[in-house]
């Protein structure tokens, strides 16, 4: 078969949108040529343009506009990814790489058509280094799979709050999702990575630039050399710079024992001050604050229990975990527990090992704090079917201001503020915080979705005006995050033009 690219034809629009029979025939022929070439690279059973398959990739669990790809391709190895990307580049055909089973926030929607590369089947855990507390993983590895592999080595993964069972670990790290252990966020726990550039060339970051993994004894931990620390470009880039085929990420020691405390409060302000003081002392591991709406969705055994359970729970609860490691685990728990309880007394709060309003909470978090959410219905979807999230970075002392602003925006939109979940995750030991509002809505209600879009955009803009830092620029946030910083936008465009001159890698994201 000839390797020459088919002549350029606009094949991204549906055939029915092409007005003339001749044009439709030409486009259909071109589409067929492209498909044959893709099949010659990936294999006939690895390429699909079936309407049913394409429809599954045309929307996600966000309020973003749908976007239908022309093809979905499931390549089996990096060599095929390189060849597929080279071919797409010759056609200037968009390439959108996905690795999670459930897609959120609209970042993976094919707005301009093109080809989706689905890497969710890439489940290899290539190497675990106990000495370096690192693990090199493929894009499709999920959290429960990774935890199962790390625990025999005395390690555990850094994990967000109760992720979905099909959440890609690599995607979570590249999107800089907040981890439950507050030490690691700005440090970005990605050591090194392999990326297929838009040209089809392979680029490896940091210490991994020395040689391919099977040809070097290098541990590939150092992100800073001998190559540049390119991870800072790759994180939060939403696949606009290339396709990540593996990453070497940080792991943490697995506690031999742990002790979980729940600290309830009728308002969030005392918990914020308490959390800041605890974090400054570098006490504990997991530490976060939830309001009763979130906690009810997490703990309820069924959606029908949520409202009743919410009424019985405290307004806010701090969840705090102390871990005992391999060396003197009991002693470590004892001294940290003493400092934690002393600090709570100084703040006028009473931590408990059992949440009196819901005793099963202790067992739930003891079992699932390092795991994916175990329920059949994901906790954010349990109340109404979906959740429109608003999340950003701020400082701990400004959290009440943003909660008040969110309450005002909900009132203006006629939305019940009591249904909104609030999650505060300290970052870098309390120097900052990830603040997240979860707004439940019914995705089957078109009018409700329209109202939610309006509330989500209005609230995002109001929160931004108050100083919210949107570091993950999805949807409306692209303009908020980049529109007011001309120098940053200019630099981003320069990098994009250097690495992807034909703009094929997830085009349109980040305003590029």
Average of per-residue pLDDT values: 91
The quaternary organization reads as single chain
| Helical proportion, percent range | 25-40%
- What's the alpha carbon Rg, rounded to whole Å? 24 Å
Number of domains: 4
The best one-word shape is globular
Report the biggest beta sheet as strand number plus sense, adding barrel if it closes.
6 strands, antiparallel
For the record, the CATH architecture of the largest domain stands as 3-Layer(aba) Sandwich
What keywords describe this structure?
512 residues, alpha+beta, Uridine Diphospho-n-acetylenolpyruvylglucosamine Reductase, domain 2, Uridine Diphospho-n-acetylenolpyruvylglucosamine Reductase, domain 3, Vanillyl-alcohol Oxidase, Chain A, domain 3, six-stranded antiparallel beta sheet, 33% helix, globular
Tell me what the structure shows.
It is a single chain. This protein is of the alpha+beta class and 512 residues long. It folds into four domains: 15-120, Uridine Diphospho-n-acetylenolpyruvylglucosamine Reductase, domain 2, CATH 3.30.43; 125-253, 2-Layer Sandwich (Uridine Diphospho-n-acetylenolpyruvylglucosamine Reductase, domain 3), CATH 3.30.465; 257-465, FAD-linked oxidases, C-terminal domain (Vanillyl-alcohol Oxidase, Chain A, domain 3, 3-Layer(aba) Sandwich), CATH 3.40.462.10; 477-512. Helices cover 33% and strands 19% of the residues. It contains 15 helices and 16 strands. It has helices at 21-42, 51-56, 78-91, 143-150, 169-174, 231-234, 268-280, 292-299, 306-312, 329-346, 360-368, 399-413, 446-465, 477-482, 486-499; strands spanning 47-48, 71-73, 95-98, 115-118, 125-129, 134-137, 155-157, 190-196, 202-204, 243-253, 257-265, 287-291, 316-324, 386-394, 421-427, 432-441. The strands form three sheets. Strands 5, 6, 7, 8, 9 and 10 form a six-stranded antiparallel beta sheet that branches. Helix 8 crosses helix 9 (306-312). 45% of the residues are buried.
């Amino acid at each position: 078969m000839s390797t020459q690219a088919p002549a350029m034809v606009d094949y991204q629009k549906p055939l029915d949108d092409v007005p003339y029979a001749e044009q439709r025939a030409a486009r259909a022929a071109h589409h067929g040529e492209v498909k044959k070439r893709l099949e010659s690279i990936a294999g006939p059973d690895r390429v699909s343009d079936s309407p049913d398959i394409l429809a599954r990739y045309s929307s996600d669990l966000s309020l973003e506009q749908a976007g239908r790809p022309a093809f979905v391709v499931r390549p089996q190895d990096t060599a095929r990814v390189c060849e597929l990307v080279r071919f797409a580049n010759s056609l200037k055909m968009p390439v959108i790489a996905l690795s999670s089973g459930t897609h959120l926030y609209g970042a993976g929607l094919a707005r301009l058509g093109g080809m989706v590369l689905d890497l969710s089947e890439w489940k290899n855990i290539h190497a675990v280094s106990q000495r370096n507390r690192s693990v090199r993983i493929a894009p499709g590895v999920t959290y429960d799979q990774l935890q199962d592999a790390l625990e025999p080595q005395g390690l555990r993964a850094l994990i967000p709050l109760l992720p979905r069972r099909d959440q890609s670990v690599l995607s979570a790290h590249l999107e800089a999702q907040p981890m439950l252990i507050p030490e690691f966020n700005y440090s970005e726990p990605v050591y090194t990575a392999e990326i297929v550039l838009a040209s089809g060339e392979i680029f490896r970051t940091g210490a991994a630039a020395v040689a391919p993994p099977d040809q070097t004894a290098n541990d590939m931990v150092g992100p800073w050399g001998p190559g540049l620390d390119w991870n800072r470009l790759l994180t939060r880039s939403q696949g606009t710079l290339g396709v990540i085929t593996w990453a070497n990420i940080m792991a943490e020691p697995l506690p031999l024992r742990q002790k979980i405390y729940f600290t309830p409060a009728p308002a969030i302000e005392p918990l914020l001050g308490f959390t800041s003081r605890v974090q400054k002392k570098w006490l504990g591991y997991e530490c976060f604050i939830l309001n009763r709406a979130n906690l009810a969705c997490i703990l309820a055994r069924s959606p029908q229990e949520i409202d009743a359970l919410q009424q019985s729970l405290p307004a806010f609860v701090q969840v705090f975990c102390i871990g005992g490691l391999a060396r003197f685990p009991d002693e470590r728990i004892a001294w940290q527990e003493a400092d934690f309880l002393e600090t709570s007394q100084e703040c006028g709060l009473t931590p408990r090992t059992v949440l009196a309003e819901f005793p099963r909470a202790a067992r739930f978090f003891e079992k699932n704090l390092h795991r994916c959410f175990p329920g059949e219905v994901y906790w954010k979807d349990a109340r109404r079917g979906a959740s429109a999230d608003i999340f950003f970075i701020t400082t701990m002392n400004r959290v009440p201001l943003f909660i008040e602003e969110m309450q005002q925006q909900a009132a203006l939109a006629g939305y019940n503020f009591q249904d909104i979940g609030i999650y505060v995750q300290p970052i870098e030991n309390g120097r900052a915080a990830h603040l997240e509002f979860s707004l439940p809505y019914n995705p089957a209600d078109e009018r409700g979705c329209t109202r939610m879009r309006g509330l989500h955009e209005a609230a995002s803009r109001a929160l931004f005006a108050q100083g919210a830092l949107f570091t993950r620029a999805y949807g409306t946030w692209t303009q908020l995050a980049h529109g007011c910083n001309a120098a940053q936008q200019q630099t981003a465009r320069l990098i994009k033009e250097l690495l992807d001159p034909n703009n094929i890698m997830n085009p349109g994201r980040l305003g590029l």
